[in-house]
Amino acid sequence: ARMAKFAFLLVALLLAFSVANAEYLKYKDAKQPLGARIKDLMSRMTLQEKIGQMTQIERSVASADVMKKYFIGSVLSGGGSVPAEKASPETWINMVNEFQKGALSTRLGIPMIYGIDAVHGHGNVYKATIFPHNVGLGATRDPKLIKRIGEATALEVRATGIPYTFAPCIAVCRDPRWGRCYESYSEDPKVVQEMTAIIPG
Length: 201
What we know:
Largest sheet: 4 strands, parallel
Order of helices and strands: HHHEHEHEHHEH
Mean pLDDT: 91
Distance between the termini: 59 Å
């Protein structure tokens, strides 16, 4: 019992010593104002870290080592870019988590942002629900339906461990010769504005 008390005391002293000597990092203190946190973080960053944080790379060239070596701030899955054929949600989660581990292992521990083109459903994911493209959704003139589609897409995206989607496109296409007119809900700005109900969804 005496030995156990001594061991406990020793561990407590070592822990207290390490906490006392830990550097205070204002940018990691959620109680600080956002501007102060940003200023503190920016003052600590090297030029290489700043460049890395402004860089977004495609999933196919990302790895935990690449995230750590180049201080990468963001990764994306472009159209058709998947971790494996018919990848399960668990495969997606493991991939995203592996990239995040690399990002968090840098000296500043800045988390990366993973983004995907889940514009009208989580189209890169096997067996996900796919909804009509924006031009078709706009034709419904139904903001409540659009919001529910946003909710369904958000659930499927989060189920794969991805926190960010590049959506929606809120362009107002008035010339069908533009190759991406199908990404516009309507040529009427009022309809496009109503269809932004997908965002809170």
